[in-house]
Write a structure and sequence with these properties.
With about 325 residues, this protein is an alpha+beta fold. Helices cover about 35% and strands about 30% of the residues. One of its GO terms (molecular function) is nucleic acid binding.
């Protein structure tokens, strides 16, 4: 069997700047989940470039398991004293916080400082250091990899236990309802010959493969706005071209579906989404769940019927649409 060879890719060839490229990329749902899996946390992005004291945190998250703040500071270069000072300022201004420092390379003194901070601070403060790398095999798309350089004492064991508990023991009432609903949805979708969901988890989304890497179907629950949603989510370097290619066929797509879609190109991100929503649908009204489940199952099935072949045929070479294109 012929095997490929791993080749390391300079992060700056993919993410030219931290604030315009790497931070928006990491804040996307799929990518923050990769970081969550590496650390054994359940992270939900709250804001980007959020003011915290005299500095601005690159990404502000909530740790679902502890309902505490998580601040992420990014560097696409070797660690420096300026960023270390910012991290210390953040931890001084917050009562309980997890600090995640991501860089392309850690200096030994900065790694030692994080280790020391984890030793002298109580369990309300946690410091992680991670190096981000990009690798490819042959001519494949670069794949990101996070390596933990520094972590709190005994974190591996605690994180593994916490991750298992999160899958079976949601920590809030909303998370419990989300997990219960997704279990019912997975069961209702099971007879479909093709569609399969990811393992249901206590979160506001669930993913469904549609047969092409970088593109997926998704079910959504927005508890704040009392809506359910189904989306086609595109999240690779050709996402904008894919979106424009599909949008040129929007009228026919709407006719085949029998309902209108919301087309979100998301110009501030690399990803795009195409959505349909069920409004005035509070998750807390469990007596309406049969209605929600029927709507979501029918909508996901319709999306798959209309988009699966189109997704397979996408070329990613469509010329950009005019700015005034509807």
């Amino acid at each position: 069997m012929q095997l490929g060879r791993l080749t390391k890719v300079d992060p700056r060839t993919i993410w030219v700047t931290e604030d315009m490229d790497f931070t928006p990329w990491l804040a996307q749902e799929h990518n923050i989940s990769l970081l969550s899996e590496t650390l054994g946390l359940e992270l939900e992005v709250e804001a980007q470039e959020k003011q915290v004291g005299p500095f601005r945190a690159d990404i502000l998250c909530k740790d679902v398991g502890s309902d505490s703040w998580v601040l992420i500071e990014n560097q696409l270069e070797r660690t420096d004293h300026r960023h270390l000072g910012q991290l210390l300022t953040y931890s001084a201004g917050l009562k309980a916080v997890t600090i995640i420092w991501i860089a392309s390379q850690f200096n030994d003194e900065h790694r030692a400082t994080l280790d020391w901070l984890n030793q002298i601070t109580d369990e309300d403060f946690r410091f992680f250091g991670l190096e981000v790398e990009l690798w490819r095999i042959g001519d494949s798309e670069p794949a990101p990899k996070f390596n933990i350089i520094s972590k709190p004492n005994s974190w591996s064991r605690q994180a593994g236990q916490a991750a298992k508990r999160l899958e079976t023991e949601p920590t809030t009432d909303i998370k419990k309802l989300q997990l219960e609903f997704w279990n019912l949805f997975e069961e209702k979708l099971r007879p479909h010959p093709i569609l399969r969901t990811q393992k249901p988890r206590p979160q506001h989304w669930i993913n469904i493969a549609i047969g092409r890497a970088g593109i997926r179907l998704g079910g959504l629950i927005n508890s704040r706005e009392s809506t359910f949603g189904v989306e086609l989510y595109m999240n690779d370097e050709n996402a904008k071209a894919y979106f424009q290619e599909l949008q040129q066929d929007a009228e026919r797509i709407h006719n085949e579906l029998g309902f209108e879609l919301v087309w979100q190109e998301l110009p501030e991100r690399t990803s795009c989404r195409i959505m349909h929503s069920l409004k005035s649908a509070p998750l807390s009204q469990k007596d309406r769940w049969p209605e929600y489940l029927e709507w979501m199952t029918n909508t996901v099935t319709a999306f798959d019927t209309v988009f699966r072949q189109r997704v397979r045929n996408l070329s990613g070479t469509t010329e950009p649409l005019d700015n005034d294109h509807p």
